[in-house]
Design brief:
The complex is a heterodimer of chains A (253) and B (346).
Chain A lengths: L2 E10 L2 E11 L4 E5 L6 H8 L7 E6 L2 E2 L5 H5 L2 E4 L11 H6 L14 H13 L15 H14 L4 E5 L7 H13 L3 E5 L3 H7 L2 E6 L2 E6 L1 H4 L2 H6 L5 E5 L6 E5 L2
Parallel strand pairs in A: 3-8, 3-9, 6-7, 7-8
Antiparallel strand pairs in A: 1-2, 1-4, 4-5, 9-10, 11-12
Chain B lengths: L1 H33 L7 H11 L9 H36 L11 H13 L10 H19 L7 H26 L2 H12 L7 H20 L1 H6 L4 H6 L4 H23 L5 H13 L3 H25 L8 H23 L1
Helix pairs in contact in B: 1-3, 1-13, 3-8, 3-11, 3-12, 3-13, 4-5, 4-6, 4-11, 5-6, 5-11, 8-11, 12-13, 12-14, 13-14
Classes of the chains: A alpha/beta (253), B mainly alpha (346).
Chain lengths: 253, 346
């Protein structure tokens, strides 16, 4: 198991945001994290990446407790792409991607060929090689997101955690980003709002409601009319798509 | 191979830039030493310095020698280090707080320093043991602690730190005004006012020793954090996910800027604008990556401050303007040009 959550609990004051969550992500697979607004998806992702410490429970990386590993050690294998991270600094795409090498470099070590290779490969994978010298401010939303993913890939992670990576993108770029993540040979945990996209691209999905997991499994086993009604409060019909054979949701007016 | 060639070219360019900047600082300092009631030619200044270093034995008028060594050279060098320190602090604050308006005084440091200074000048606190500078330093330190506590240690975000800094500035400025209006006489109020706007009038070699050591240490320490500062471009969360200990980096860098700023303010008063405009200028010239940006800030800040000091003495005959007046009068138009150009570029 690559990344495992054991009974995670996280509270702000008296409010319990994440309430006893346990799951295991399968190595090399794409795990979708679904749920209505405020169901605790983002908080759970922060716990998984070690940005927040749970009040109880633990996160395991190949069996070792995340809390016992240093922040740099974690950053060398778990990369995180947060929602709308932007900057006013006039950075080039390649400068942003180079940030991904930060956890791999010791205090005063020089930039190495290995660093260069990791950056080039990350740019290539994210399809940003041609735009490597563009300035951040001149990029479209989709290119910014790809640049962030390239930065995360430059960390050479074995786990990639993304918080709603398709937010604010047009449909071409939404599909593009999801195809890219699905094609990566690493474990990914992705919070998503679009259930049809989740059904199309994720190998497994977890559905959260009020900080708890209410369903988990392959998309065709999880996404059902009952679930849509009970968790998302919408009426819909679910059928297997004749095109990609995954579940497809028709929302009803 | 292409990359290596590029790096080599970059190194040559960098070395050229460094030499050019050092020459610029040297010239600015020479100019600063040369200007005054007794004009001194650049060659004489150079000879005086090389004589003292034991490299040459040129015959120089004793009067020149005294004016150069006892008054003007130390003053010019202190100005250079103060400009460097303030610019460096400004660059750090702007990057760390991700706010283009942040400058060394955003933490209320100059307000704290002035409260400390008036407490010494007017109330006579410290019973003569504590100098004005000592009081200013303590005041600056108190303001820093106040902000650190109010912004919830290191856990509060950038906005919270700025708000805490605004609160600290208000509080300490109110305290300063209270002391001046209730206890001060007209002459004391004028003295305080002059000190607050900044002056290199009283600085000599002991001040040079202190400020050069503090700013040099600050620069070295900040350079060690250059890569870490880069990771803050996308905010605390991204920095943390890259393995940066955000809380520790914040407190160390704030403490460094506070130390540099407090030393400078306690020595020459609060000189505005340098910490704000120099980093923006440097960024426009050399880009946002800190390994290069920080040294650029130091060099540009040093030249700017020395020239501002020259202007403060040369603008009005027989009178020295407060340095803060000059930096603002020169700085604002200059800053407007940069803003205008940035706007056009984007």
């Amino acid at each position: 198991m690559s990344i495992t959550a054991e009974n995670l609990v996280w509270r702000i004051g008296s409010r319990t945001i994440v309430d006893g969550v346990s799951f295991a992500a399968e190595p090399g697979r794409m795990l979708g994290l679904l749920g209505p607004n405020g169901s605790g998806k983002t908080s759970l992702l922060r716990l998984l990446t070690g940005l927040k410490r749970p009040q109880s429970g633990r996160v395991l990386l190949d069996g070792s407790d995340l809390a016992s590993l240093g922040a740099r050690t974690v950053a060398r294998r778990v990369a995180f792409v947060e929602q709308h991270a932007t900057t006013s600094a006039n950075l080039r795409v390649v400068d942003v991607v180079r940030l991904g090498r930060f956890p791999h470099r010791s205090w005063m070590s020089r930039w190495t060929h290995a660093d260069d290779r990791a950056v080039d490969e990350a740019l290539q994978r994210a399809g940003m090689q041609d735009r490597r010298n563009e300035r951040w401010q001149s990029l479209s939303g989709g290119e910014k997101q790809r640049t962030h993913i390239a930065r995360a890939l430059a960390q050479t992670p074995t786990e990639l955690v993304l918080d709603e990576p398709t937010n604010h993108l047009d449909i071409q770029h939404q599909i593009g980003v999801l195809k890219l993540v699905a094609s990566l040979p690493i474990t990914s945990v992705v919070a998503l709002h679009d259930l049809n996209h989740a059904a199309m691209f994720c190998d497994r999905v977890i559905v959260m409601q009020q900080g708890r997991i209410v369903a988990s499994g392959p998309p065709d086993a999880v996404i059902s009319e009952t679930l849509l009604r009970e968790v998302f409060s919408v009426e819909a019909r679910v059928e297997a798509s004749p095109h990609h054979h995954r579940p497809h949701i028709h929302y009803l007016r | 191979m292409n990359g290596e060639y590029g790096a080599l070219q970059g190194k040559a360019a960098l070395a050229g830039l460094l030499l050019g900047s050092l020459a610029a600082i040297g010239l600015a300092i020479g100019l600063s030493v040369g200007i005054g009631d007794l004009p001194i030619p650049l060659g004489t200044t150079l000879a005086a310095v090389t004589n003292r270093l034991g490299w040459t034995t040129v015959e120089i008028d004793r009067v020149y020698e005294t004016v150069i060594w006892d008054y003007r050279l130390s003053r010019a060098l202190v100005a250079a280090f103060c400009g460097a320190g303030l610019a460096l602090s400004g660059a750090i604050m702007q990057s760390l707080l991700r706010n283009p308006l942040a400058e060394p005084y955003v933490l209320g440091i100059s307000a704290g320093a002035s409260t400390g200074a008036v407490a010494i000048i007017i109330l006579g606190l410290g019973g003569g043991v504590l100098s004005l500078s000592g009081g200013a330093f303590l005041g600056a330190f108190a303001a820093f602690c106040f902000v650190a506590l109010l912004s919830n240690g290191t856990r509060g975000g950038a906005d919270r730190t700025i708000l805490a800094g605004v609160a600290a500035s208000q509080l300490f400025n109110a305290a300063t005004s209270y002391i001046v209006t209730t206890s001060g006489n007209a002459q004391q109020a004028r003295d305080v006012m002059f000190w607050l706007l900044g002056s290199f009038g009283g600085v000599r070699w002991p001040e040079f020793m202190l400020v050069s050591v503090v700013v040099s240490l600050g620069l070295v320490a900040c350079l060690c954090y250059a890569r870490t500062l880069d990771t803050f471009a996308f905010g605390d969360e991204t920095a943390a996910s890259l393995g940066v200990n955000v809380g520790r980096a914040r407190i160390v860098l704030f403490a460094l800027t506070a130390m540099m700023t407090a030393t400078i303010v306690s020595m020459v008063g609060s000189i505005g604008f340098v910490g704000l405009i120099v980093p923006h200028t440097a960024r426009a010239l050399i880009g946002p990556l800190h390994v290069r940006l920080l040294p650029a800030c130091v060099l540009i800040g040093a030249v700017f401050m020395v020239l501002a000091d020259v202007a403060s003495r040369a603008l009005i005959p027989q009178q020295v303007l407060p340095i803060g007046v000059v930096t603002a009068l020169v700085g604002v138009p200059f800053f407007s040009i940069i803003l205008y150009r940035l706007q056009r570029a984007s």
